[in-house]
Amino acid sequence: MTIAGQASAQRYLTNVFTDVTVTSNVTYGQNFSVLTGSPVLQDLKMDFYEPTGDTETQRPLVIFLHTGSFLPKGVNQLPTGSKTDSAAVEMCKQFAMKGYAVAAVAYRTGWNPQGDQDTRTGTILNAVYRAMQDTKVAVRFFRKDAANGNTYKIDSNKVVLCGQGSGGYVALAYATLDKVAEVQLDKFINQTNNTPYVNMAVSGDFEAYGGNPAWNKADNHVGYSSRINMVCNFGGAMGDSSWMEAGDVPIVGIQGIKDPFAPYTTGGVYVPGTTPPLFVVEVSGARDVARRADRLGNNDVFKSSAFNDPYTTAANTLNEGIPALFPISGAANASGPWEWWDPSDQFSNNGLASNPLMSKARALLFIDTVQGFFTPRMNRVLFGNVGMNNVLSAEGAVKIYPNPTNQDRINIFVQDLAGKAYSVDVFDAMGRRMMREENIRLYDYSINRNGLKAGVYFVKISTDGGARTEKVVLY
Predict the structure, then answer these.
(1) DSSP for 264-323, written as a single string
(2) CB neighbours of 451 closer than 8 A, spacing ≥ 6?
(3) What digits encode the pLDDT tens for the residues 420-473?
(4) Partners of residue 106 on adjacent β-strands
(5) Gap between the Cα atoms of 193 and 109, Å rounded
(6) 2-390 belongs to which homologous superfamily?
(7) Using the 8-state DSSP alphabet, how is residue 136 labeled?
(8) Which long-range contacts (C-beta less than 8 Å, at least 24 apart) are formed by 175-183?
(9) C-alpha distances in angstroms, 233 versus 42, 107, 272, 279, 391?
């Protein structure tokens, strides 16, 4: 399957490819599901995204973990919850068009939100634990492949983990949970029988090794490292902030300040839709996680760079000076504003309860924003580059305004081109060129909409020295 997109300027920072090729349902390992009550061995699946026609053989790998409340889509009574959710696909697509190899990983789900306190807390902790184990299996799968022919053409020294919603819990656990004592804190102890909720003798260790042989039979790439370079959580939270220690990988946090499903600071998680709300567990959200990473020195890599892009400027108005934190304000933006789904989905109204302004056009703008904030920081960790402010270099800054717009003309401001001629191409969301104007030398220029229908478009400004593409939403 091929997905069309946009073209642009600098690999790993902006979209340099127009197409993405997806290999669906690759088996990356095996482990036992708990959804049926009895252990059932299942294949673990992922979708692999890569730039179409790419000749690079050593590409950084992004592992992307979807949302879904740790229950299968449908069972969770939500319109989201799989690796093929619209937002997950678009996130992966955008990373791949920047030149990354990307894996949308499905992990084991299953917990009981309707049981008593011990049941709720114990089953959700085990759900996060199993998903973390599966993600480590996925990373080892790629390292094993890289050492034996490198089918997926990755640089096994550059692996980044991104988690969306529920996947954010998994990503943050992956980055910090590595000691037995950390799963035996008081709040992780069953109050009925005084035993840890996570029984590693049964479930296996952090790498999914060992445990009861009835539950852990698979090889799952023993001997290969599950090390990663950094983490980004788009929502979600950390089971306990004490998990994080000096020397852990850098963490970028992106979250709605009023997220109804995970606290932005530190607080309780509750079962949605219950009256009174049923408490599950206390956790720490993006603000407290990013602040602790900052104080421990784990995020010093972000302090040594000047990020002068508009996404950083926007984040800095709310992030209390924490450089790797992007708070999203507004109640309507609190829970997954980058998500959208088919309004005819039988559970659409449940999703609208926390995302009332849901639309594809709106979600794409949020995806642009969070990727615009995160990608330069990922680039800094992986390559030591400064950030998006370097993308334009001598070709100057580009601004498309107003955006979004319902006006008949699209205004383009191009700065510091020193009299160079440039061309403007407009592509639709499928990558088809809708119009082109050439030999333009004006700093401030406008093109006629010429009857373009409402939707998402890409305006590409090109000179002999390079190009820049901006997304525009017309309505």
Answers:
(1) SSEEEEEETT-SSPEEEEEEE-HHHHHHHHHHHTTTHHHHTS---SHHHHHHHTTSTT-T
(2) none
(3) 788 888 887 766 788 988 888 777 788 888 889 888 888 888 876 667 778 888
(4) none
(5) 25
(6) Alpha/Beta hydrolase fold, catalytic domain (3.40.50.1820)
(7) H
(8) 175/228, 175/231, 175/244, 175/248, 175/249, 175/251, 176/238, 176/243, 176/244, 176/245, 176/248, 177/132, 177/206, 177/239, 177/243, 178/206, 182/240, 182/242, 182/243, 183/125, 183/129
(9) 27, 16, 21, 22, 24
**Rounded to whole angstroms, how far apart are CA atoms 215 and 233?**
29
For 32-57, the DSSP string reads: EE-TTSS-EEEEEEEEEEEETT---S
Return the domain boundaries, the chain: 2-390, 394-474
Q: Locate tokens 């319109």: which residue?
A: 79
Would you call 345 helix, strand, or coil by DSSP?
coil
Q: What mean pLDDT do residues 410-429 have?
A: 76
For the chain, state the CA radius of gyration.
Answer: 23
Residue 437: phi, psi to the nearest 5?
-130, 140
CATH fold of 394-474: Immunoglobulin-like (2.60.40)
List pLDDT tens digits, range 422-436.
Answer: 888 888 776 678 898
Query: Could you tell me which of 138, 170, 182 has the C-alpha nearest to residue 156?
Result: 138
Residue 250 to residue 26: CA distance in whole angstroms: 29
Helix axes 117-146, 166-176, angle to 10 degrees: 70
